[in-house]
What we know:
By secondary structure, this protein is an alpha/beta fold. It has a single domain, classed as HUPs (Rossmann fold), CATH 3.40.50.620. It has seven helices and five strands; from the N terminus they run H-E-H-E-H-E-H-E-H-E-H-H. Helix 2 links the parallel strand 1 (27-31) and strand 2. The longest helix has 21 residues, at 166-186. The model has no long low-confidence stretch (mean pLDDT 93).
Amino acid sequence: MSPETMALAQRIWDYHHVNHSLQPADCIMVLGSHDLRVAERGAELWLQGYAPWLLFAGGLGRLTLGLWQETEAEKFAKVARQMGVPEEKILVESRSTNTGENVALSYQLLQQRQIKVDRFILVQKPYMERRTLATFEKQWPGPKTEILVTSPQINFTDYPNQDVSMEEVISIMLGDLQRIKIYPEKGFQTYQPIPADVREAFEQLVAQGYTGHLMPE
């Protein structure tokens, strides 16, 4: 992969990060995916005392359906238990299949448990921070809640592993950026400004063929 392509992809990666400074919260909510490092980040934050509750949300999504036998939330919760988080502090929402459902069904679970949340720490993959923020701002059905977003503390060049290649990471990042652009009009997310240099990087990478996760427009 050329240095030029890597530089363009780095620009997209940086845009997807919202760079929030974390503060103590009422609940850490970890959104499901194929990346167990997200579960580890959530458990680390709980163990550091950032919140009394650790909620895992996610059934089987497009990247895990057919790959895993148990839901994303259940698999993530197992990671947290192995890291020392007590069972009674873990909440599991295992029916949702997308980020919007993560939000709605987690709200229902918290209501059932009578857990009031004024501030959330949301944990997601690094290249999904901004879309998670935008979705949560739009979809959260309860009273206004402060949202802080974080992800595994990994840089772009180190992120690919045996589960996801660099090429796949770039394609997924472009798909998420496209959704940030078009989903506000559909009522799925809040509007997020996209700087001109990020739009330019997107167009150049699409022209190079990183289109595997784009939606038809």
